[in-house]
Design brief:
- By secondary structure, this protein is of the alpha+beta class.
- It has 10 helices and 16 strands.
- The strands form 5 sheets. Strands 8, 11, 12, 13, 14, 15 and 16 form a 7-stranded antiparallel beta sheet that branches.
- It is globular, with a radius of gyration of 22 Å.
- It starts with 5 loop residues before the first strand and ends in a 5-residue tail after the last helix.
């Protein structure tokens, strides 16, 4: 007996970790619109072949759903097909692990979506009289060594661990304390992505824009049960070191998304700055808060509970998205520790709806 020459993927097939976000099923529900054609497949056969998603990415899913499907279609997959007239398909990753589960410390940023954050920082700051960042700046010393891993040693929650680290610093700048633990950080990861600590298949990382929207509308949960919202978020030009320095100086912390090379893990474990190593393999996507700049021009970041340095060349090569967050939690009155008056800035940004 033979199967039909084509079959349609079952409508109830869902990828691990699918959850409902902003009215769309993600990421698994988006697969329902994918159609896979095979010729003369034997009923008793189990077939494995690469799926050519990339060539027709836009025709597979609508733009709104593509955001959450990206971790599934950006890299090659294999499908195992069995059954009679309808068939079932089980997808397993061939090369890409968005959570970095194969690494000693985990990752968790899904592939960048250019244009996902529609408001651009330089568009809204152009009319203001902006300060020039000094050679050395940053308030990471207010936290010291007490950043905490916040689950990113075991799970791909870097976007949420980073959000907690940013919130911790903003509050310290205003002489307040916001504490986070694994439970509070992972609860937000679960709320947005459907992550379940008991099910490794649900550990698929987070889209930066989706996380930023959640942070503005609902806020991240701290260990005391308090939520911390941002007022707005703005896109920077990826890899532009001058924009990055300005954003960190103005807003205290900036969310950086990178394509993570394996060499950076070796450098982190050795206590060395992240620098470009020719031929390094990209292991996945990672989110890191930018906190300042040192005397050598390196960007100061925090990842996996420790302060890490990143060379400008590394940032320029591997950054694929970057977001500046506007938070009043860093202010004493309307001013930052540098004395920059935020009243006009917040007046310009309060109408943003992202």
């Amino acid at each position: 007996m033979r199967l039909p020459s084509t079959f349609t993927m079952r409508s109830d097939l869902r990828a691990p970790g699918a959850s409902q976000i902003s009215g769309h099923t993600a990421p698994g529900g988006a697969i329902q619109s994918c159609f896979i054609a095979f010729s003369a497949i034997q009923k008793s056969a189990t077939v494995s072949q690469s799926l050519p998603f990339l060539a027709s990415r836009q025709s597979i899913v609508a733009r709104s759903t593509r955001a959450m499907l990206l971790p599934l279609i950006e890299y090659p997959f294999h499908a195992t097909i069995s059954g009679e007239s309808e068939g079932t398909a089980t997808m397993t990753k061939k090369a890409f692990d968005p959570a970095g589960k194969h690494l000693p410390f985990k990752l968790g940023k899904t592939p960048a979506r250019p244009g996902a954050v529609k408001f651009k920082m330089m568009t809204y700051l152009r009319k203001l009289e902006l300060p020039t960042p000094p050679k050395v700046f940053g308030h990471q010393g207010l936290i010291g060594a007490k950043w905490g891993m916040l689950g990113n040693d075991d799970y791909g929650d870097c976007v949420w661990a980073g959000a907690a680290h940013e919130t911790m610093l903003w509050n310290k700048e205003a002489a307040k304390t916001a504490s986070f633990n694994n439970k509070s950080v992972l609860s937000d990861y679960s709320a947005v992505t459907g992550f379940k600590p008991s099910d490794p298949n649900t550990d698929q990382g987070t889209d930066m824009q989706v996380a930023a929207s959640y942070r503005r509308k609902k806020g991240v949960l701290d260990a005391a049960g308090k939520r911390h919202k941002i007022g707005a978020y703005l896109a920077l030009k990826p890899g532009d070191i001058d924009q990055l320095a300005l954003a960190i100086y103005l807003f205290g912390a900036t969310g950086i998304g990178i394509k993570f090379p394996g060499s950076a893990m070796d450098q982190f474990k050795a206590g060395k700055p992240w620098s470009v190593v020719p031929g390094a393999k990209i292991e996945g996507g990672h989110y890191i808060p930018g906190l300042g700049r040192d005397k050598n021009g390196n960007i100061v970041i925090v990842t996996w509970g420790k302060i890490q340095l990143m060379t400008p060349a590394f940032y320029e090569k591997y950054c694929d998205e970057v977001v500046a967050y506007v938070s009043k939690e860093c202010l004493r009155g309307d001013k930052s520790l540098e004395g920059f008056d935020y009243s006009q800035l917040f007046g310009d940004l309060k109408s943003l709806s992202t």
